[in-house]
Design goal:
heterodimer, A: 77 residues, 4-stranded mixed sheet, globular, B: 353 residues, mainly alpha, 15 helices
Chain lengths: 77, 353
């Protein structure tokens, strides 16, 4: 299990808030830190990993943790 | 007047359910498509929208040549198209969903979208039949330009059906060559199978669809919608705003004649999205934690309702159905929907960062 440096809870948020918030958060974090993003919006669950990858970050896991709930774990480059 | 079950209710409802299924699975929302081009540099949904328009265009051209449908492009009223389109575009960013996106998200259990839909449906009705009508009517009649025989302006005049055919074929060919083959080639280079049909059930019902099948499916649905809707006496393909206006008219006046093909289509979209989101375990009643966001979504819905009726169509009527018909009015309204979307997305999400 990796150590989570920071968690972002975007549950209940509609598109594009989860995408924009996670992008802003990832930009502020330091290299090597781990960010866990909690979302319940399907489109964001699919796109946040893509956005993170295009920023150069490493997506460690995307897990469906419940009905329409996902946890995305990202390692900042 | 009784509702005609066989030509109005059942076909409208079934096509609506299919529309809802595709929208939910493909996460097909034009607000996201246009907005995220500037916000996230994300183009997949936009590709889906372009492909859907081209597939619809090709089908409409062929069906027009074979006499199956009569082309019925929307009118050109530049003032109404510009003002209505721009206000609609601003509204859909605030509401976090276009007309079709907001409708299908209600079926997914998004309560913010339900609030937006209430504002949208009500204001569309007030603009069509109530206190806001004079403003819309003024813009529509004072700036209207038609052909000399009174028909709607299209980009290529009498040659429009031929150009629809050509643009459809060439456009789909270019997309296949530059976008689809490129993706398949990249897959091949990674030594992945180019088309993987294993776990097809999981891919269809559990994961989001790829942009290309989504776009093609929506384009083809437009063909069936045109034939079915015309048979019900409404000679136009897919639409959303008219459906919600129809429901409001029925509730307010009790006149069941207001319940046309489009009203059952929009109801079907909600039902279809509900069914597939349950199957995919994506249905959940959820609401933004911040009360302000719900208010903003409501205001967005209000702007969308006024904009859509003034511009004589929402993103579905003007872009998904109107672009394929090469109506000058729809194209102008569509451009201003996109501009409104970009201006609002910039003000809301990009200025601060």
């Amino acid at each position: 299990m990796v150590d989570i440096s920071d968690t972002l809870d975007c549950r209940g948020e509609v598109c594009p808030y989860p995408d924009v918030k996670s992008k802003r958060k990832a930009k502020k974090m330091n290299s090597g830190e781990i960010l866990k993003i909690h979302v319940d919006y399907p489109l964001s669950a699919e796109r946040i990993p893509d956005t993170m990858k295009s920023m150069g970050n490493e997506v460690l896991s995307v897990d469906k943790v419940g009905t329409s709930e996902w946890e995305i774990v990202v390692k900042i480059k | 007047m009784a509702i005609d079950i066989l030509t109005v209710l059942i076909p409208g409802l079934i096509l609506g359910i299919i529309f809802g299924i595709i929208l939910q699975r493909g996460r097909f929302c034009m607000n996201s498509a246009f907005r995220d081009v500037i916000l996230l540099k994300e183009y997949k949904l936009l590709k889906s929208v372009i492909l859907a328009i081209l597939v619809a265009m090709l089908g409409f051209a062929i069906m027009s040549f074979t006499g199956i449908i009569t082309l019925n492009p929307k009118a050109f009223s530049w003032g109404a198209n510009i003002v209505g389109g721009f206000i609609f575009g601003i509204g859909m960013v605030l509401a976090a969903g276009c007309a079709s996106g907001t409708t299908y998200r209600v079926g997914e259990g998004m309560m913010g979208s339900l609030v937006a839909l209430l504002g949208y449906g009500a204001t569309a009705y007030f603009t069509k039949f109530g206190a806001l009508n004079p403003m819309a009517k003024f813009l529509q009649t004072e700036t209207r330009i038609t052909n000399s025989d009174g028909s709607s302006l299209t980009v290529f005049g009498d040659l429009t059906p031929i150009f629809m055919l050509i643009i459809g074929i060439v456009g789909i060919g270019l997309i296949a060559f530059f976008w689809i083959f490129k993706e398949l080639k990249a897959k091949k280079e990674e030594n992945k199978p180019m088309l993987d049909f294993s776990e097809l059930g999981v891919k269809i019902f559990k994961r989001g669809w790829h942009w290309a099948p989504t776009g093609i499916a929506i384009g083809i649905l437009g063909w069936f919608a045109y034939v079915s809707s015309a048979a019900a006496g409404r000679n136009y393909p897919l639409g959303i705003t008219g459906g919600w206006v129809g429901w409001n008219k029925f509730w307010i006046t009790g006149d069941s004649a207001a319940l046309g093909w489009e009203t059952f289509l929009v109801l079907g979209v909600v039902i279809g999205a509900f069914i597939v989101s349950i199957i995919a375990k994506e249905f959940k009643l959820r609401t933004p934690k911040d009360g302000k966001k719900i208010l903003i979504q409501f205001i967005g819905g209000v702007a969308m309702g006024f904009g859509a009726v003034t511009a004589m169509g929402c993103n579905v009527g003007n872009i998904l159905s109107g672009f394929p018909l090469l109506s000058v009015g729809s194209l102008l309204a569509g451009v201003f929907i996109i501009l409104g979307c970009w201006v609002m997305a910039y003000l809301m999400f990009m200025r601060k960062s």
